[in-house]
Amino acid sequence: MTSRHVFYHADRRGLLNEGQELTLDQGGLSPFGAVYVPCIYQTAFELLTDTQRREYLLEHVRSQPEYSSLPCRFQSIFAANSIQEAVIFAQEIVPKPTQPVRIFEIFSDNFRTFDSNWLDLISSSTSIDNYYRYWSGFITNHRPAEGKRRPPRLEVIIPLPAVVGKVVETVGVDN
Q1: CA torsion 142→152→157→118, rounded to 10°?
Q2: For the chain, what is the radius of gyration of the CA atoms?
Q3: Does residue 62 register a pLDDT over 50?
């Protein structure tokens, strides 16, 4: 395991255990994919929630030839490069968890890093340029007319399989 890279995952759904090997389910999906795939491919686009639309459009963009070699979000786990970044994610999760969120080490040699700020910018089915920027690996330079600048927010996409390490932090619901 020493040759593997270490990342940090905020386990908001409480699915992980130390030492667990993360694999795809029988349908070839990660737990994230198992939540989204059934609804986004069986529901009319206009009836999808904003997050379901986002994931549908992200996969549509990723299926384009220039992006098709990138990891599928529906077959991956998401992580941060540092414990502090994972803690910040756990503190900012919407909806806010009702139970403490454990931060786990995740080990893998197969990963890609993207700026998830692109995912928070409003896109529609006719204007998905931000999702192309996301998959292109561009880093945001969010400079709003009012308010504070939001620095890039890097997320690591780790295609499964991967290995879960130890719990390195717990974020309480009132943090």
Answers
A1: 0
A2: 16
A3: yes
